[in-house]
Amino acid sequence: MTTGWAWFALIASGIVDVAWAFSMKKADGFRDLPWALVSVALLIVFVALLIKALEVLPLGTAYAVWTGIGAAGSVAVGILIFGEPASAGRLFWIALVLAGIVGLKLQAG
After folding, report:
1. Nearest Cα to 46, choosing from 26, 21, 83?
2. Percent of the chain having pLDDT more than 70?
3. Is the pLDDT of residue 65 over 90?
4. Spatial distance between the Cα atoms of 48 and 12, rounded to a whole number of angstroms
5. CA 50 – CA 6 distance, rounded (Å)
6. Furthest C-alpha separation in the chain
7. CB atoms within 10 A of CB 20
8. By the 8 A CB rule, do 1 and 52 touch?
9. Looking at residues 5-25, what average pLDDT do you find?
10. What is the pLDDT of the chain when averaged over all its residues?
11. How far apart are CA 78 and CA 86, in angstroms?
């Protein structure tokens, strides 16, 4: 796998991770079986993509980027879909997470 494809797999894994978090919320503690099954399927997909990306990318950078995508994406889903607060403080800290992701990506090349 090339470095470019590894970054693609990592970003895709982060996006699927956000979808997984959404599905976990909808699964309601695994009381909603269809959403619980979707959640398990998404878990398998994001882990498989992450494993492929880690074959090429540096662990620390890749994991930080992946968790940042998941964190920022999950906050966005919470705000946009579940009506969670979009306070200036929350948005500032998520922007700081995103700035850290960009910095790590620039350092990794």
Report:
1. 21
2. 98
3. no
4. 11
5. 9
6. 44
7. 23
8. yes
9. 97
10. 93
11. 9
**Chain centroid offset of residue 80 CA:** 16
pLDDT digits (tens, 9 = 90+) for 38-63: 999 999 999 999 999 999 999 988 88
Least Cα distance to 73 among 39, 45, 97 occurs for 97
Question: Does the model's pTM come out above 0.85?
Answer: yes
Can you say how many angstroms the Cα of residue 97 is from the centroid of all Cα atoms in its chain? 12
Three-state secondary structure call for residue 15 = helix
Count of beta carbons in the 10 Å neighbourhood of residue 28: 10
Task: Calculate the dihedral angle through the C-alpha atoms of 63, 37, 12, 10, rounding to the nearest 10 degrees.
Answer: 20
**How far from chain centre, in Å, is Cα 78?**
13
Residue 11's Cβ-side half-sphere holds a number of Cα atoms within 13 Å equal to 9
Using CA atoms, how far apart are residues 42 and 23, in angstroms rounded to an integer?
8
CA distance 44 to 71: 19
